[in-house]
Each structure stands twice: as structure tokens, then as C-alpha cells.
Amino acid sequence: MKKIYQQSIFKAAFASALIACAFNVSAQVKVGVIEGLSGPPAIVDFGESYLQGIKLALKDYQTAGGKTKIELTVYDDEANPQRAVTLAQRLIQNDQASVVIGTVSSGNVLAIAPILQKAGIPLVAGPSIATNITTQFIEEKPSQIFRCSMVEKFQIDQMLDWGAKNFKRIGLIHSTTGYGNFAAKEIEAGLKARGVELVAIEAAAPNVTDLTPQMVKLRDAKAELVLNFHESFELPFRPLPRLNYKPVIAGNWGLSSEKVLEIVGKDAIEGTVMGQALDINTPRAQVFNEKMKKEYGKDYRWPVVAALGYDAGLIVFKAVDQVGKADPAAIRNAIENIDGIQAVSATPAKPFSASDHECLDKEHVFLGVWKNGVVTRLN
Length: 379
Description:
Elements: H1 2-26, E1 28-35, H2 41-63, E2 69-76, H3 81-93, E3 99-102, H4 106-119, E4 123-125, E5 145-147, H5 152-166, E6 170-175, H6 178-193, E7 200-204, H7 212-220, E8 225-229, H8 240-243, E9 248-251, H9 258-264, H10 266-269, E10 273-276, H11 283-296, H12 303-323, H13 328-337, E11 366-371, E12 374-377
Parallel strand pairs: 1-2, 1-3, 3-4, 4-5, 6-7, 6-8, 8-9, 9-10
Antiparallel strand pairs: 10-11, 11-12
Helix pairs in contact: 2-12, 3-4, 5-6, 12-13
Signal peptide: 1-27
Protein name: Amino acid/amide ABC transporter substrate-binding protein (HAAT family)
Keywords: Signal
């Protein structure tokens, strides 16, 4: 009788363990993703590339046997801040997302960040780059706003240090968007601090299709280096052959997109410089690059943005795995304290701290250059 009783207890305990194990395997955490997947081509290029990286990170997490079931809920904000706000509210109220990743437009991020901060839902911003995205929330206790992306100030500082050292005559072309005007102010002030005055400053609306008048003025001002901070990254290149004008062009990391290479051409883009956070020559970056080519084929076109999307995914999925359930507060704490990240980009193993929610700091950002059809580190 005692033996039968013991066997019954053992069977009950075994059954309970199986149920508990099944519960853990099926436990589901929803990760919301908001990206610009339609609208202006430059926005779509950023959004699709970052999302490609996130999806590959999730696939790798699942292949490695991640214990927590993670579901991505992906929305397109259409580069519209009002729609981004609606989507953030939907993720909080309807989808019950425990953490959110996104989006491309800095204006959209700045619109949704206060909503997520108030709701206590962590946000890992990217690939938006406005300098103040995390800093304006860092004093909140706790701050819910993190970022895994380029930071505008870091790429501009690197570029101005290099430009002021190597060129006597520097000009600027920028868009009249909030982003373009912000970048122009930072560039003008930064060069003045380095003892350099711009020889010409030209601006154009974001929807123009021809920058010939602006490039004529930059040529006539004898600008040797043209800083390109217009979101239609390819436009400054188009009139150059007709104008018999061959400046060095440097600018936003958007210039590293293979879509820009495709439009401008290998010869015309040779020597163009931009902010970077991925050294494609490292072994890990080369392995990642081949995996992305295999996964997405010709749709894969932007290594650095995809790499930062992948690293954002690594961080979020590892944090979720540590927590093991839909608990936004615990996931937020896990993100802040995460360590041992084997990033593809220049993101360090321990990306964040209580006082710094940027995965990239100034020392992780460098300049890249188009060389023989590939973006490599500028020496």
C-alpha cells in the first residue's frame, strides 16, 4: 500500500512538472515594433533594414533554444507622428506589449516616448538619431527610454573633427525639415568652435527633385567638402558631372545605404564619407553580412542599420529571456543591466547603465567611406 502511495505521489509530481514545463515553454511575451515601412523612400529604407535585423535576431534566439516564447507585433507608422502615437497606444492597451522597439523618424519617437514612459513600458528606440531622445528622460526614476542606433551629435562631431583637419573650404547642403535644420545648427556651431566658417550654406525642401541651383552656389563658393544633410541623400550627386564639380561629399549615415550606391553609381559615390557604427571587415560582421544575404537576398541593402536592429533585438530578447514572463518593469530593469551582448555593431557587451541609455557612445562611432563599392572604416 505504501509503495502504491509513493508511486502515486511520484506520478502526480511528475505530471505537475510536465505541466509547469509546458507552461514555461508556452509563456508568451509580446514585443511591439513600430517602424516606417511606407512613405518617403529614405524612411522605408531605414525601417525595413532595421526590422530585418530584429527578425533575424528573433530567429537566432529561437534557434538557440530561448525558453520564452516571443511574439513580434509589427506596425507601420507611415512616417506620421499622429499614427505613431495611435500605434503606441494600441500596443499598450490592446496588444499588451511588454516592450517596444522603434522607430525611424526622431519626431515620431519623441511623440511616443512620453506615452510609453507614463505607461511604464520600455522603449528601445531605433533607428532614429536625434541627440536628445534618451537624455530628456534619463532623470526619470525609472527612465523607460533606451536607444540602439546612431546618435546625431556623435556622427557630426566625428565628421567635423575630420573635416576641419583636412579641408580649408567647407560647405553645407541641408533639408528644411526639423531634422535638417537641427543638423545645420549643430554643424555651424560645431565648426565655429573649431575655428572654421562655412563658405556656403544651402537649404532645400524635402520634396525637391533637383539640387542644381544649390550645388552651383557651393561650386562657386569653392567648397572642397560638401556636408550633405538632405534626406534625399542621392540628390547632391546628380548635377555634379554637368557642373564639372568634384567635391568630397560627407554626411548622414544614410549615405551608406546600398540603395544610394545603386542610384548614384559606384564611381560617383567613391570616397563619400559618413557616420558609421559597423566595421564590415570584422569577422562577426562578415558572418552577419552573409547570413543577412542568405535570409533576405536582394532586399538586404543596409548592413549598419540592419546590424543595429539585430543588436536591439539581441538586447530585448535576452532581457525577456532573463525575466521569462510578460513583466514590463522587470524587462526594463533587465535591459538596463544587460551584459554579455555579442553585438554585430560597435555596441559594447554592456550597452546601458542607470545614467546612460545609449547603446552607442561617442567612442563607438567612427567614419566610414565608400571604397570599391563597399563601406569600410575611414583611416
